[in-house]
User: What shape does this take?
Amino acid sequence: MRIIASILTITALFLVGCSSSERKNKSSKKRKFEYSEVLRNKNLILIDLDTMKKEIGKYSSFYSRVKYVPLETTDESQIGKIEHIEIFNDTLLIFDSESAKAIFVFDQGGKFIRKIGKTGRGPGEWVQPVSFSVDKKNRELMILDGSLQKVFRYSVSGKFLSQISLSGNEIRSHCIECYNDKIFLDAKLVSQTKSYPGYLLREIDTEGQTINKWFDTRYNKGWNQGENPWYLNGSGTLYSSPSGIKYVDLFMDTIFSINSNGISPFIALKSKDLFSADRIAEMLNSNSSMVSFLHAAQNENGIFAIRSYVENDDLIRFLFSQGSYYREIIISKKTIIPVCLRRVINDIIFRTEHDMYFPDFYCGEKSIIVGKVNNLVHFQECLRTEETNLTEEEKAGLLSIQPADNPLLIILQTK
Assistant: This one.
């Protein structure tokens, strides 16, 4: 990629380094719009992608055990597409935002327990749920309706508690996470003026009022401003982690950490292939739709999306897109040395090397990571043709899964 990022780590650190008083002075002089403080981080993890070797990774290098979990399929538990998964105690909370538009609760063996929520206009009913979060401290679920711009509160047992209407007609949110009795949402700008430049992340109170806002559009290089109100489902995403929340938006090169101390940069990518703000502006002006814009971004082979962030007590892993391909970054917490993978081999299950799709990973806790097999047909073909370490009974069970059945989960035990 021939594009050089003009807003990379140095710029990000400059923005982060502004004190709250400096921000207030600049805001009052230029914009009369105040952003909440972003802290410095002396232990920022900087990943130089241009000097890293893109490796072929083996599961046995990072994981000690692989377990496949078929989800029980019944009329009541039919899942169309998994949008997100969270772990709560010994259960898996699986969110289908497209077909069932509900949360399904399974035990970690795949047995169905209950379904939470439904569409409608009555109390506790939503129109278009787009994101959910688990408040483990208070044993509650928070489900965000992107259409109504409301947050629905449920107990983990499925009882509707209350709903919160979000303030601010100029901002719409599509992602939610809660931590330490605080509620955080991404912020997509509907209309922009000189006096109201917008922001990317906000904290709300229990009445839906915005009480803190962070990051002007320089942080994601001007993407998704008022004249181009596009957004991607999954962009500007908040991720739960053992130490709090992680946040990154489309075209950002930095993952931010949200914890009890505040917000600070956590991981930053460095590469000549990161898109610049100027190039993004050119592409926005020359592409009239989201589809054509993304095609243009992919054709330039640039790096433009960090996604699927998962963290547990042992490691950190996430994907970044470069052109039409995904690459995986894995960071061991013991060494803090990043590894970049262009493909992976499941050598714990299979005895022979073969190409496999990156699973869709969703969450981690303690020493496990939970994901979904990304291509069931390809996976089953490998089971039929390759030598495995599975018993005949285990193999037969996995081969019996039908395309119309619920998705097949993969649970990895990290080293």
Observations:
- The first helix runs from residue 9 to 17.
- Residues 1-32 have pLDDT under 50 and may be disordered.
